[in-house]
Amino acid sequence: MRRASVLASALLGAFAAAAGAQTRVSPDPGYAATGQQIERLIRHEIEDKALPSVTIALVDDQRIVWAQAFGWADVERRTPATAETVHRVGSVSKLFTDIGIMQLVERGELDLDAPVTTYLPEFAPRNPYDRPITLRQLMSHRSGLLREPPVGNYFDPDGSSLAAMVESLNGRSLVYQPGSRVKYSNAAIGVVGYVLEARSGEPFARHLQRAVLEPMGLTSSGFAPTPALQGRLAKAYMWARDGRQYEAPTFELGMAPAGSMYSTVLDLGRFLSVLFAGGRTRSGVQLLRPETIETMWSPQFGVPDQGRAFGIGFALSTLDGHRHVGHGGAIYGFATDLAALPDQKLGAVVVTTLDVANAVSERISTAALRAMLAERNGQPVEPVRIPVAIDTARARRLEGRYASAHDASAHSVRLVERAGRLFFDNGDRLSLRAFADTLVIDDRIAFGARILPLADDRIMVGQDTLHRVLETKPAPAPPRWTGLIGEYGWDHNTLYILERDGVLHALIEWFFLYPLEEVSATEFRFPARGLYDGESLLFTLGPDGRATQVEAASVVFARRAVGTEAGVTFRITPVRPIAELRAAAVAASPPREPGEFRDTDLVELQSLDPTIRYDIRYASTNNFMGEVFYTEARALMQRPAAEALVRAHRRLAAQGYGLLIHDAYRPWSVTKMFWDATPADLRHFVADPASGSRHNRGAAVDLTLYELATGEPVRMVGGYDEFSPRSYPEYPGGTSLQRWHRELLRDAMEAEGFTVYEWEWWHFDYAGWRGWRIGNVPFGRGEGVER
After folding, report:
1. Which strand (E) or helix (H) includes residue 661?
2. Which of 244, 470, 604, 717 is the most buried (most CB within 10 A)?
3. Catalytic residue of the set 518, 760, 783, 786
4. What is the largest CA-CA distance in the chain?
5. What's the rounded mean pLDDT across residues 765-772?
6. What pairing do the DSSP bridges indicate for beta strands 613-614 and 657-663?
């Protein structure tokens, strides 16, 4: 986890320079205004959303009229991205797989409407309906198959052969009747790729290279990670709402036909040119007939389902009345949008190297197509409208919970202010910016939804008018869910089972939160929408009633060991003996700091308010190292910070809570012991003695809540000094009540000038903490710290 912290810092430090590190290819003066506006938008998005890189190519029929990269192919090495940088393009891969199939259809070797078992007799999912699955259904997401295959799925780092992937679907029930509704499925396109492999008699990747990619002249594309492609592959990055960020994994997918293609924006631009030419390549090869491409661009099952329409592979929509075709792609750190106006023969390809930032790629491609269309028609290119930051005072006025006046449980949202920024929270916390009086969601993962503040504490969300309501304390989660709540799966892709508003939820693929329908004590179901619509979750319970795994949407996620049980103190094994660490710390001296500092005026917190309670862990062995570090259980802070803390304590009393202090002023020598004892991958939980700690300055405090009525500490999502993700202030798991308590503590402290430390919900720094000098006076009577 230390790696995540260092990487995030490297990215943040690189973005300003990244905007200037670009390689331009084939600029076209006919689209100068388009280029200016889209470059302005891209530069804004890179800075506003901390994107490692954005790469774009624009196509007018047979010409790539603009291709440019902004940012870094490798942030840490400062390697600029270029238009020749290779990316993983995720589900854009599906279009090439489908083209391979359509070539065989044109030759009469395959029938789109024949049962797929005609070509794969070994394919045997459980189909209780009287309609067989066909290639047309598979390729237009109407097969009813699971989204992911049990083997070789998006989560599976071990990969698999296509044969093994297809075999894993055997015996698995269809989610919906074939042909009845849209059910997006990576497994379906995996099956399509296996049909191609079986009928061509050669490995899928080799066949597509020979029959599709090479004739198109796509020399920097492929489904196999060759050394040539890997040598130009950009580094992409994963992130999570709780603050983590790390390099994306690069393992191959078992359902490669659905998402494992490598390419550049230049190659994808050439691909669009082939489509615009009716399937004829620059070398004169008729790859597909024009009528075949039109079929791929036409709805296959009539009226769009749930607002979604698919042709053969292509997603279909309209843009300002014009026919719009394309596909997005999302795979571990890469977010791609390939979009075209086929009747105007205009296209755009945009890739960014940050996970699930498809809303950004799509916004850029949409703005580019609009600008190109206007400029080619001789019309003025309208400036791209970029929302602005919301004034901090306005953000604080709007903060609160809003709900329907008729049924608060039917529709409610929260507007949350954090560090002067306003967020829209309806399950995910999305950044808000402003278009004059209107607020707009403008986030890495979503853009465009409007919120209009009205008079009398009301807001309009879409067509719904919501009223400000009192934020009430949530009820405890039902005890029957206690053994289910937790983390499951892999480091690179973790599934959270959590309780929210009295409903069990699944947070999957880091950002997609779904309420679950309870079928039985161990069976739940995803809603009939979203990524895993209609699929089931089956929990396996151990003898203690605690789930050991959950099979979610056919994928088995093992329970992860995270933190400690309630009441159990987290422990590390020091990397060196305690006696050795103590001797080294006592012999060392704090770093020298130039400049002027405020006078030290440490005051005992209980001397200001005796109802503040203490549980000073480092004055006992009940701490993460199991050693005594303080000779007295005392909590001291610089007077302004102490007085602010007392105000927070008294603010909380109105709601029945008080502050329980775990640590405040900490001698520098103790900080050095903590650092030297802690394994490198956990050091983001302890301060580096080379720069000193906020605790050393007497301007930081570790604390939690206790109930005034009982005197008992409040149970949070994770425990104090627990070196785990549950300690992060934005950790999404646990229960509504646990998160509510965490937010209550944070709100009270931030109202009095404290800020929470990014990795620890219990650690708060007082404003201006740098103004006090690092201290190293130990605890104890006569040792220099006054009572």
Report:
1. strand 657-663
2. 717
3. 760
4. 95
5. 96
6. parallel
Distance CA 268, CA 92 (A): 9
> Residue 774 and residue 590: Cα distance in Å, rounded?
7
CA gap 206, 225 in Å, rounded: 12
Which of 130, 163, 355 has its CA nearest to residue 257?
163
Three-state secondary-structure class, residue 302: coil
Mean per-residue pLDDT for 360-378?
97
Report d(CA 735, CA 94) in Å as an integer.
Answer: 39
Whether 124 and 170 have beta carbons less than 8 Å apart is answered as yes
**Contact between residue 9 and residue 246 where contact means Cβ atoms under 8 Å apart:** no
- For residue 608, give the amino acid letter: L
Contact 118, 138 (CB under 8 A): no
- Say how far apart CA 272 and CA 293 lie, in whole Å: 11
Tokens standing for 772? 């006090």
Q: How many residues does the chain have?
A: 787
Taking the model in full, what pTM does it have? 0.93
pLDDT of residue 741: 98
The band of 785, judged by pLDDT with boundaries at 50, 70 and 90, is very low
Amino acid letter, 646: V
Pairing of strands 53-60, 438-442: unpaired
DSSP state of 134: B
pLDDT at residue 748 greater than cutoff 50:
yes
Q: Interior CA angle at 665 toward 660 and 667, to 5°? A: 135
Q: What are phi and psi of 325, to 5 degrees?
A: -130, 160
Average pLDDT over residues 16-25: 47
Q: State pLDDT tens for residues 210-248.
A: 999 999 999 999 999 999 999 999 999 999 989 999 999
Reply yes or no on whether the pLDDT at 286 is more than 90.
Answer: yes
End-to-end CA distance of the chain: 39
CA distances from 593 to 422, 596, 773 (A): 36, 9, 8
Considering only CA atoms, which of 499, 504, 503, 501 is closest in space to residue 537?
A: 504
- Give the span between the Cα atoms of 485 and 481, in whole angstroms: 6
* CA-closest candidate to residue 46, choices 78, 79, 22, 77: 22
Distance CA 784, CA 632 (A): 13
Q: Which residues of 679-701 are buried (b: 16+ CB within 10 A; e: fewer)?
A: eeeebbbbbebeebbbbbbbbbb
Q: What is the predicted pLDDT for the residue at 783?
A: 36
How far CA 513 is from CA of 98, 413, 527, in Å, comes to: 31, 14, 11
CA–CA separation, 68 vs 82, rounded Å?
7
Q: State phi, psi for 682 to the nearest 5 degrees.
A: -115, 5
Decide if 73 contacts 168 (C-beta within 8 A).
no
Describe the crossing of helices 32-49 and 2-18 by its angle, rounded to 10 degrees.
150
Question: Is 43 within 8 Å of 36 (Cβ atoms)?
Answer: no
**Residue 584's pLDDT band (boundaries 50, 70, 90)?**
very high
Does the pLDDT value for residue 7 go beyond 60? no
Is residue 760 part of the annotated active site? The answer reads yes
